[in-house]
């Protein structure tokens, strides 16, 4: 059968490979001039440093099958994401751990003492946090909330934390030991030759035809089924309105040597307009010493306009209502599956994206084996 896949990010590439391996032909289109979607990496022409073009990407997962899958296409180099944060003129360790707590309060507490101390700081009257602020206050109390979360979150989302869902903060751990690994997953690493090289290898299989610089809206063709990883609202011509996104602007900093001494430095004070600075050569510690120069991206978040790249789905009440109306339209659409970050309007990490793409292809292949339509 002949399939069309819209988008050459992880979603599209994984589905294309699975279908092609099962003997089908697949046309993959992407309107950008490169593959790998927002995970795109490329070496900087001037310095040779591997740049994460659309912001820092660290691979982490608890899904053994997904980890084995990516390791088929690259060597995953050891990498642990250790984030530092500037707040009120001092540098701290994130996610909030025993070091952070002792730094902020000027103490030398041990784990049990710190747990009791933070419990006493936390708002015990908030039993079921209704929003981001309540979640933070019930978890870490006023002082840590103000130091690390309030200002950063207002910059990142352009909203007051009382308007945001509690789930956004639940992504971050709180630790009463000195473990400063930003992620809690058992598998973590950085691809030796970048993410774009993984996607290139995933797509490098007989039966896959790739067309870059090509919009789905501009192609014709008779396809047994379309897997669409573009924006859901765009597929329907925005007829119910636009789903809200945050977009990012990156301001490039070039310097000699080492600019900030680490890969990611968050700026938690609201008075500083950017949210974080990423220094890309530190994402490849195994290449340390190879480059004289350095390249950093200063990151600014703002509301996504019609001509901007959508990054973070906002998912407030208004968007959720619009989303369910679009989902109803999507269910009626014949021969189309909506996949990935944009197709399902959800914040998906790479590992979940790959898992869901494997499952989507698997379900289609299972239907075909049963003699059903894809
Ligand atoms: P995308 O990568 O967005 O690919 C979709 C593709 O479809 C795009 O290339 C687009 O050009 C194309 N397209 C859309 N519409 C059309 C059309 N009509 N015609 C043709 N082409 C079209 N995840 C992690 O696991 N770890 C991280 O550290 C991490 N950091 C992140 C940092 C930032 C700043 C952001 C925004 C995300 C981060 N993520 C991270 C999430 C990660 O980027 C996503 O999981 C991943 O990109 C999703 O892949 P996708 O294929 O669904 O979508
Ligand atoms: N956050 C914060 N301060 C920080 C880091 C994160 O307030 O220093 C909040 C912010 O609202 C962010 C959320 O926690 O959107 C989740 O953080 P994560 O690091 O997962 O953000 P992402 O990688 O998605 O940008």
From TrEMBL:
<keyword id="KW-0274">FAD</keyword>
<feature type="domain" description="UDP-galactopyranose mutase C-terminal">
    <location>
        <begin position="147"/>
        <end position="347"/>
    </location>
</feature>
<dbReference type="Pfam" id="PF13450">
    <property type="entry name" value="NAD_binding_8"/>
</dbReference>
<comment type="similarity">
    <text>Belongs to the UDP-galactopyranose/dTDP-fucopyranose mutase family.</text>
</comment>
<dbReference type="InterPro" id="IPR015899">
    <property type="entry name" value="UDP-GalPyranose_mutase_C"/>
</dbReference>
<dbReference type="InterPro" id="IPR004379">
    <property type="entry name" value="UDP-GALP_mutase"/>
</dbReference>
<dbReference type="GO" id="GO:0050660">
    <property type="term" value="F:flavin adenine dinucleotide binding"/>
</dbReference>
<dbReference type="GO" id="GO:0005829">
    <property type="term" value="C:cytosol"/>
</dbReference>
<dbReference type="Pfam" id="PF03275">
    <property type="entry name" value="GLF"/>
</dbReference>
<protein>
    <submittedName>
        <fullName>UDP-galactopyranose mutase</fullName>
        <ecNumber>5.4.99.9</ecNumber>
    </submittedName>
</protein>
<keyword id="KW-0285">Flavoprotein</keyword>
<keyword id="KW-0413">Isomerase</keyword>
<dbReference type="GO" id="GO:0008767">
    <property type="term" value="F:UDP-galactopyranose mutase activity"/>
</dbReference>
């Amino acid at each position: 059968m002949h399939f069309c896949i819209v988008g050459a990010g992880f979603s599209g590439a994984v589905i294309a490979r699975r279908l092609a391996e099962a003997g089908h032909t697949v046309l993959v289109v992407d309107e950008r001039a490169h593959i790998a979607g927002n995970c795109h990496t490329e070496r900087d022409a001037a310095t040779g440093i591997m740049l994460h073009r659309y912001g820092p990407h660290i691979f982490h997962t608890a899904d053994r099958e997904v980890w084995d899958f990516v390791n088929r296409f690259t060597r995953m180099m050891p990498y642990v994401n250790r984030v530092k944060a500037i707040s009120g003129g001092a540098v701290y360790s994130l996610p909030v751990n025993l070091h952070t707590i002792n730094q902020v309060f000027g103490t030398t507490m041990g784990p049990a003492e710190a747990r009791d101390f933070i419990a006493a700081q936390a708002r015990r009257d908030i039993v079921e946090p209704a929003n981001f602020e309540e979640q933070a206050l019930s978890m870490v109390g006023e002082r840590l909330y103000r130091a690390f979360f309030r200002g950063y979150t207002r910059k990142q989302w352009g909203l007051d934390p009382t308007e945001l869902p509690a789930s956004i903060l639940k992504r971050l751990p709180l630790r009463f030991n000195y473990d400063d690994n930003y992620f809690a997953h058992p598998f973590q690493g950085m691809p030796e030759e970048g993410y774009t090289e993984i996607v290139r290898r995933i797509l490098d299989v007989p039966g896959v035809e790739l067309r870059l610089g090509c919009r789905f809206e501009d192609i014709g063709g008779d396809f047994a089924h379309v897997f669409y990883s573009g924006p859901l609202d765009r597929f329907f011509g925005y007829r119910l309105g636009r789903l809200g996104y945050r977009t990012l602007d990156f301001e490039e900093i070039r310097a000699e040597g080492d600019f900030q001494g680490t890969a990611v430095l968050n700026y938690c004070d609201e008075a500083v307009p950017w949210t974080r600075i990423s220094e890309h050569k530190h994402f490849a510690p195994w290449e340390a010493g190879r480059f004289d120069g350095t390249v950093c991206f200063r990151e600014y978040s703002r509301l996504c306009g019609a001509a901007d790249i959508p990054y973070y789905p906002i998912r407030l009440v208004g968007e959720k209502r619009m989303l369910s109306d679009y989902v109803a339209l999507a269910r009626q659409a014949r021969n189309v599956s909506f996949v990935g970050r944009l197709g399902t309007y959800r914040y998906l990490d790479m590992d979940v994206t790959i898992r869901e793409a494997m499952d989507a292809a698997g379900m289609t292949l299972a239907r075909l084996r049963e003699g059903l339509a894809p």
